[in-house]
TrEMBL record:
The keyword Transit peptide does not apply. Residues 304-557 form the Malic enzyme NAD-binding domain. This is Malic enzyme. It comes from Pisum sativum. Gene3D superfamilies: Malic enzyme, N-terminal domain, NAD(P)-binding Rossmann-like Domain. PROSITE patterns: MALIC_ENZYMES. GO terms for molecular function: malate dehydrogenase (decarboxylating) (NADP+) activity; metal ion binding; NAD binding.
């Protein structure tokens, strides 16, 4: 029974605006009719009174109706006015706009997420282009750098070396029991900002809020995790407010054992269909972890695979502007880590499928530059394994500009994590070799971008097809306005994850990444091309995500990787019906 002091009551009928799966056996688990397992319509415990207002999952602030205020002991706890969610959204966006400093906007958004989850997501969805740079790159990068001083409440799980041997217990401390996606980092390579240790938590939190806002995966299914094995960041080690373990990183067996315990415990606790997204691990671990767990767990590395899928889509759609087939182009990467080699591999796979040519042959048109210069066969012995397929016959070349002049790429892709490395000389070399050079400056956040949009358009005299990892405003050159694209894995991972979840897929296959990429490219219309865009705007992202989810799920069924039966007849309708929407529920 309900009590006035805020303890729990049974709510016999909570109407939800969204139902999925026709009321039985929904994609989120067994026998549930609503998209949010924490509130089935028939028999749910939620807080009442003061505690209800303090519960971000249920709180509606001034949107509680008169009847709800009576029924749930809220009288007097709220001022008398009742306002709707739409008005609250308008008020909140005005409040956010009053902050001049992006980090203040970030803190205000995190505060809202902690106070009223549905309002947070409604606001983020309704103002996605404006707020994405706040909850995501670039501001999330700054938030991670200052995480120790802005830390208020844990927004996910911290699993440190102290928890070794007890990780299952730690997972069970998390209040949500039906977790379907974990985004996990060890903080060693946060965006292009390097080792931020435990302060990397901002990244899984940000990524998962996009899973919900952009991909419609319900918030209670999402679990952000930071694995803390120490940090090699001397500055953080000396900081009083650093929130992580204050010693250098554990490596080797100690590291592997902790990760392995985590992977085993996560699968044991949440089941075979749990999606684990690796995010912002350093190169060596990123490749090893993907290799080690891809055949036993549903794992996805966003930096290797998500980035690859989004970039391939952008290049495929850029062909509409520059002409030629994918196989006719020559690619030069600056940066041969996760993103660089991940994108290179997926492009090679796609060309190989399209042209029916062996991968070895296709790779010859794809070149990579790392910190030591062009990757060439004479360096093969000393190369890390993920670089070896790209070591082609060529004399050594040290500088990027020389590589551009000698290789003559049609597409230049920056994945270096180092800002300002596409110098005027480099960009001009691209422009002198190509009528419409494709230039992608993918490193994040904005400070690490290989060049700015303005530089790309100015130095190519408005001829560049440009996209970047972090957003840039539009640029005017010679009386014409250019709109740079944002080539960020945020286009892919939310819809990709939804596709896996809704189909009960148990393993990630490269063909699923190609399907996601194709789905994204198919969302770019003539209207976008006419504006020089190679990606659709983020304002359409939920529709884009539904399309990605549908194609990914269809491919998963085709490959025999999907376990949810029966297979939905109309995959797109099904994807849309699965998506969480943050409209307030009515509490009777
Ligand atoms: O988070 C982003 O904006 C894209 C990404 O995965 C990275 O840069 O590591
Ligand atoms: Mg990342």
């Amino acid at each position: 029974m309900a009590t006035s002091n805020g303890s729990c009551l049974k709510v016999p009928d909570i109407h939800d605006n969204t139902t999925i799966g026709g009321g039985v056996q929904d994609v989120y688990g067994e026998d549930r009719a609503t998209e949010d397992q924490s509130v089935t319509p028939w028999n749910v415990s939620v807080a009442s009174g003061y505690a209800l207002l303090r519960d971000p999952h249920f709180n509606k602030g001034l949107a509680f109706t008169e009847k709800e205020r009576d029924a749930h002991y809220l009288r007097g706890l709220l001022p008398p006015t009742v306002i709707c969610q739409e008005t609250q959204v308008n008020k909140m966006i005005q409040n956010i706009r009053q902050y001049e400093v992006p980090l203040q906007k970030y803190i205000a958004m995190m505060d809202l997420q902690e106070r009223n989850e549905r309002l947070f997501y409604r606001l983020l969805i309704d103002h996605v282009e404006e707020l994405l740079p706040i909850v995501y790159t670039p501001t999330v990068g700054e938030a991670c750098q200052k995480y120790g001083s802005i830390f208020m409440r844990p927004q996910g799980l911290y699993i440190s070396l102290k928890e070794k041997g007890r990780i299952l217990e730690v997972l069970r401390n998390w209040p949500e029991k039906n977790v379907q996606v974990i985004v996990v980092t060890d903080g060693e390579r946060i965006l292009g900002l390097g080792d931020l240790g435990c302060h990397g938590m901002g990244i899984p939190v940000g990524k998962l809020s996009l899973y919900t806002a952009l991909g419609g995966v319900r918030p209670s299914s999402c679990l952000p995790i930071t694995i803390d094995v120490g940090t090699n960041n001397e500055k953080l080690l000396g900081e009083e407010l650093y929130i992580g373990l204050k010693h250098r990183r554990a490596t080797g067996q100690e590291y592997a054992e902790l990760i392995d315990e985590f992977m085993t415990a996560a699968k044991q606790n949440y089941g075979e269909k749990l999606l684990i997204q690796f995010e912002d691990f350093a190169n060596h671990n990123a490749f090893d972890l993907l290799e080690r767990y891809r055949s036993t767990h549903l794992v996805f590395n966003d930096d290797i695979q998500g980035t690859a899928s989004v970039v391939l889509a952008g290049i495929v759609s850029a062909l509409n502007l520059v002409g030629g087939n994918l196989g006719d182009h020559r690619f030069l990467f600056f940066g041969a880590g996760e993103a660089g080699t991940g994108i290179a591999s997926l492009i090679a796979l796609e060309i190989s499928k399209r042209t029916n040519s062996p991968l070895d042959e296709v790779r010859k048109n794809i070149w990579l530059v790392d910190s030591k210069g062009l990757i060439v066969s004479s360096r093969k012995e000393s190369l890390q394994h993920f670089k070896k397929p790209w070591a082609h016959e060529h004399e050594p070349v040290e500088k990027l500009v020389d590589a551009v002049n000698q290789i003559k790429p049609t597409v230049l892709i920056g994945t270096s994590g180092h800002g300002k490395t596409f110098t005027q000389e480099v960009v001009e070399a691209m422009a002198s070799n190509n009528e419409k050079p494709i230039i992608l400056a993918l490193s994040n956040p904005t400070t690490q971008s290989e060049c700015t949009a303005e530089e790309a358009y100015n130095w190519t005299k408005g001829r560049a097809i440009f996209a970047s990892g972090s957003p840039f405003p539009s640029v005017e050159y010679d009386g014409k306005v250019f709109m740079p694209g944002q080539s960020n894995n945020a286009y892919i991972f939310p819809g990709f994850g939804l596709g896996l979840i809704m189909s009960g897929t148990i393993r990630v296959h490269d063909d699923l990444l190609l399907a996601a990429s194709e789905a994204l490219a198919s969302q770019v219309t003539q209207e976008h091309y006419d504006k020089g865009l190679i990606y659709p705007p983020f304002t359409n992202i939920r529709k884009i995500s539904a399309n990605i989810a549908a194609l990914v799920a269809a491919k998963a069924y085709e490959l025999g990787l999907a376990t949810r039966l029966p297979q939905p007849k109309n995959m797109l309708n099904f994807a849309e019906s699965c998506m969480y929407t943050p409209t307030y529920r009515n509490y009777r």
